[in-house]
Amino acid sequence: MTSTIAGRTRKVRRGYGRVALAFLAPAIVVLVLVRLVPAASALYGSLTRSSLLTGDTRFVSWENYAELLGNPDFRGAVGVTVLFTLIINPLQVAIAFALAVLFTRRLAGVRWWRSLVILPIAVPPAVSAVVWNVIYRPDDGLANAVLGVLGLPPQPFLTSPDQALAAIIVLLSWVGVGYWMLFLIAGINDVPGELYEAAALDGAGPWRKFFHITLPMCRRPLAFVLVADTVSNLLVFGPVQMLTGGGPEGSTNLLMYDIYTRAYTLGDLGRAQAEVVVLVLLTVVIVAGQFRMLRGDER
Amino acid sequence: MRAFTTHRRRLPLTILAAAVGILFAIPLLWVLTNSLRPGAETFGTISPLGWETFLTLTPNVDNYTALAGTSLGRGILNSIIVSVATVAVGLVICAMAAFALAALPFRGRSAVFSVIVLSFLIPFDAIAIPLADVFRTWNLQNTFTGLILPGLGNGMAIFLLRQFFLAVPEDLAEAARLDGLGWWGIFSRIYAPLARPAMIGAALMLFLFQWQAYVWPLLIGTDSEHILGPVALANMQGQFSVDYGLMFAGAVVLIAVPLVIILTLQRYFIQSVTTSGLK
Q1: How far apart are CA B111 and CA B88, in angstroms?
Q2: Predicted complex ipTM exceeds 0.90
Q3: What percent of chain B has pLDDT over 90?
Q4: Residue B49 burial (CB < 10 Å; 0-12/13-18/19+)?
Q5: How far apart are CA B115 and CA B121, in angstroms?
Q6: Cβ of A52 under 8 Å from any chain B Cβ?
Q7: B183: which chain A residues are within 8 Å (Cβ-Cβ)?
Q8: Segment B67-72 mean pLDDT
């Protein structure tokens, strides 16, 4: 009797494995096709070099990586990407959080004003690039018309090495800030109201409430938003390709764009793939942190 | 007295909130208005800046009807085809995987879960260039299969659906088993309907991934029959004479479709993301 039950349980367990495999199979096939195969291909390709003349491919081990490190364009792209990352991510998270705090106050028409900030998140990045390309036109663009009304001189925006990266940051923030604000509004709404009531009884003002309740209670959503934002900004490509082509003077040559030109304009596939591997490793480390954060208190 | 002071303190904040909202909306209003007038008038109304820059008294939809015969119109149509197909197939694939990971105890389940979610979290755009080379050798360039395939698996969607499926009581599945329902029936008739908010949230993620994609369709869908909306729009910029009215009309359509969906479903979107462990 006992043995038949045990036997049956074992059979059921084995059956579960097979059923589970059937349910998982399509996802695993897609995963292998579009994630693992290209990752493996990039890894292998980064260790080889093809001759343009003979078409032969030979194994060069770490040579591509070593040459990449000595390449001024690549080093410039790393520098621009680091600068960009250090500016845009704290900036976007700070603005998104400030707006989240503002739009969770009880103000006249606040839901309406909040919706207006959320609207641009629907704009696909490529569309925002096209639209802002017209806004940024130096002679007859909307941005300089607005500056003119304010009594300010016209700016070159995308054609100036000092302004192009900032112009791209403004464009990306227009689309991005509302999106990250949504998560932070959810986080603020989850803060128990009793905390504020207790603080009010103790005579705490709005600033004290913000620094001692809102900010610490939103640590988790803030961390999540910072990491997710960092990853998405690491992969910025469309606006660079459409607006500046990495210029002027390499001032907007972000890593994704550098990879693209290396692969297709320079035809240097081996080194482009080495650069892909570097970028993937970098983002995977950040994404893994994000994943841990998402798992959080599951157990 | 007290009501008066809070009111006085709130007024500047209300003005600030309104100003920020209007600032964010102005570029969209400008795009919408210029889609409703001939392209030749776009720059004529900019300087000097006035209300006519942002509003028109004589709106017409000529630009929208003109979209029909252009590659931009074709691109928008293709974007719809690709996005809808991705949601239809991708939702089933992701939900099936999530169901196996939540409801079927098997050995090594947590390891499989970690591997699946982590590998799907390799940012797709980062490996798009090597993948495009692979797809070219498989003759998948300029095919709808090639455009749709990368959107089908979504690690976040699987993760989100699994979280919801875990909340379904096991007794329910057991009772259904005793009544003779197969695993597919348990999945499609019990788990999937019960996780409806998560299914909607996941569908939205799958849709937006395809609708907003630019790098991948730029690499793999280049001929006139497989061009997607964002690529077609970007291509217009490089042309010798740009019809700005047409360009803005295309931009409005490419913005309006996700906007309507997000506004209708934003409840599920925020809910699904916040309940997946953020708290």
Answers
A1: 28
A2: no
A3: 43
A4: middle
A5: 10
A6: no
A7: 19, 23
A8: 88
Q: Chain B contact for A256, CB < 8 A?
A: yes
Distance of CA A31 to the CA centre of its chain: 21
Q: Which residue has the tokens 């995987």?
A: B97
End-to-end CA distance of chain A: 37
Q: What is the pTM of this model?
A: 0.86
Q: What is the dihedral of CA B31, B83, A172, B61, to 10 degrees?
A: 0
Select the residue of A13, A26, A220 nearest B278 (Cβ to Cβ).
A220
Q: Does B46 sit within 8 Å of A142, measured CB to CB?
A: yes
The two three-digit tokens of residue B125, written as one number = 């755009």
Output the tens digit of pLDDT for each of chain A's 299 residues. Answer: 444 444 445 445 456 888 889 999 999 999 999 999 998 989 998 898 876 666 677 788 788 898 888 889 899 999 999 999 999 999 999 999 999 999 998 888 888 999 999 999 999 999 999 999 999 988 888 888 888 888 898 888 998 898 999 999 999 999 999 999 999 998 898 888 888 889 888 888 888 888 988 998 888 889 889 988 998 999 999 999 999 988 788 899 999 999 999 888 888 888 898 999 999 888 888 877 766 766 654 43
Residue of A nearest to B158 (CA): A27
**Candidate from A20, A42, A224 with C-beta closest to B100:** A20
Say if the Cβ atoms of A130 and B107 lie within 8 Å.
no
CA distance A48 to A266: 16
Residue from A161, A174, A177 nearest A127 by CA: A174
> Measured between beta carbons, which residues in chain A are less than 8 angstroms from residue B121?
284, 287-288, 290-291
User: Which of B134, B153, B255 is closest, CB to CB, to A123?
Assistant: B255
Q: What is the mean pLDDT of chain A?
A: 86
- Closest alpha carbon within chain A to B122: A284
| A149 in B contact zone (CB under 8 Å) | yes
Contact B53 A135 (CB under 8 A): no
Please compute the mean of the pLDDT values over residues B55-60 and round it to a whole number: 79
Chain B: nearest CA to A203, how far in angstroms? 15
d(Cα A17, Cα A36) in Å, to the nearest integer?
23
